Amino acid sequence: MVKIIIVDRNGELEEISYEDTISNIHKITGYKTKRNFFDRGSWPWKGHYITLFAKDTGRANQENKYDLPPPLDNDLFFNKMVLVKHSEMTIAEEDLLDLTLADWKSCYEKLFGGFEDLGEDDSYSSEEEIPLELQTKHGYSKEGGFVVDSEEEEEEGWVPEEEAVLVDSDDDDDEDDEEEFEDDEADGSELSEDSYYSD
Q1: Burial of residue 195, with CB atoms counted within 10 A of its CB: 0-12 exposed, 13-18 middle, 19 or more buried
Q2: Can you tell me the distance from the alpha carbon of 72 to that of 51, in angstroms, rounded to the nearest whole number?
């Protein structure tokens, strides 16, 4: 008799004692036949292996919601699944070992790269308090360099685009530009009608 873990369709885990053979492991989940209930992959764990047995076909809305570790994290399985621990890569009856919930949770955490627990001291707020002297009049922080207070804008001489007016310093420059444009047309510039051909 060994301990195995049943993964319910809603993602809940249950540790149970199993005394039948691997070839009958489908029965523990309620399946009458072994059809499509196979070994879907294994994870190495402390010199042993943990293997998942599951079905990859089923009815809509019967998908198992449990998040499996890589490389099975993108695979879709249905209804109940079973986790089994064994000493050799290939599963044999004599190689079965106890798999407890504590073992699986430890393995699971390692396979996902570790999880960080946020305690009360570690919790944070999306709205951090900003000292008043570092706030704009709208409450944003001046420290980041991206937000400029409107008072600072006026001091630095910044003018919004709508208020900016273009001022020509010399009207003579416009006349020179017009003369150059006329000369280009006379010479047959790239933009003249002569340089375009039609079929």
Answers
A1: exposed
A2: 11
Residue that the structure tokens 């001091």 belong to: 155
Distance (Å, whole) CA 156 – CA 61: 62
- pTM for this prediction: 0.57
Residue in the block written with tokens 């004692």: 17
Q: Give the span between the Cα atoms of 177 and 179, in whole angstroms.
A: 5
| Contact of 5 with 99, CB cutoff 8 Å | yes
pLDDT digits (tens, 9 = 90+) for 53-104: 999 999 999 999 999 999 999 999 999 999 999 999 988 889 999 999 999 9
DSSP 192: S
Residues 6+ apart with CB under 8 A from 130: 139, 140, 141
Q: For residue range 134-169, list pLDDT tens digits in order.
A: 777 666 666 665 555 555 545 555 555 555 455 554
